[in-house]
Amino acid sequence: MKLYLIRHAHAVTEQEDPARPLSLKGETDARHLAAWFRLNGALQPAQFWHSPLVRARATACLLAAGLGGDPLLVETTGLLPEDDPEETATRLAEYPHTHDLALVGHEPHLSALATLLIRGRAKPAAFKLRKGAILALEPLEGTHKRDGRPRWRVRWHFSPELLPPPSA
User: Fold this and answer.
1) Rounded mean pLDDT of 21-32?
2) What is the mean pLDDT of residues 19-26?
3) Which residues contact 55 (CB under 8 A, 6 or more apart)?
4) Residue 74 near residue 50 (C-beta atoms within 8 A)
5) What is the domain-level CATH number for residue 32?
6) Is the pLDDT of residue 168 over 60?
């Protein structure tokens, strides 16, 4: 199983719209990421769990549509910016590791979750995900001594600015 932690793409400011949908840049970046990963096959989750916020749902929808393969989209609690990463880590420990999973959420939650999965504690955060960034994790053998949860390691980390410009 691979776990993909995905920060939502660029959103409009709260002054422009309190619901904060994706900006044109965010929509473009999400589509471009999906096209890139569809070609190389490095991102193929069976499910996208996303926070209830508009910008996370839109990012998940654009990625799922662009990747193809008909992944399941699931609005999931525990993925908001200030949510406790322990809740998500517990849910992941109980999740069957038979297929890949993507979580689309927010900072600082995703960085704290990644740190917790890798180090066994959420602070200090070892990561800072940029908007639209994807951190791919894979499980390791064994568990953390502190909490008994499965151990993970970084497989790769990718941000939209690393993509070549879209062809015209």
Assistant:
1) 96
2) 95
3) 8, 9, 11, 20, 21, 22, 26
4) yes
5) 3.40.50.1240
6) no
Q: Which contacts of 68-77 are long-range, i.e. CB under 8 A and separated by 24 or more positions? A: 68/38, 69/44, 71/45, 71/46, 71/47, 71/102, 72/46, 72/47, 72/48, 73/47, 73/48, 74/47, 74/48, 74/49, 74/50, 75/49, 75/50, 75/51, 76/49, 76/50, 76/51, 76/103, 77/52
With beta carbons less than 8 A apart as the criterion, state whether 8 and 26 touch. yes
User: 64-98 burial, b if ≥16 CB within 10 A, otherwise e?
Assistant: bebbeeebebeebebbeeebebeebbeebeeeeee
Q: Residue 167 falls within a domain, yes or no?
A: no
Residue 42 lies in a domain: yes
Q: Which structural domain, as residue segments, surrounds residue 7?
A: 3-13+17-162
> Token digits for 105?
């959420």
- What element of type H or E holds 34? helix 24-40
Domain count, the chain: 1
Residues 69 and 106: their CA atoms lie apart, in Å, by 25
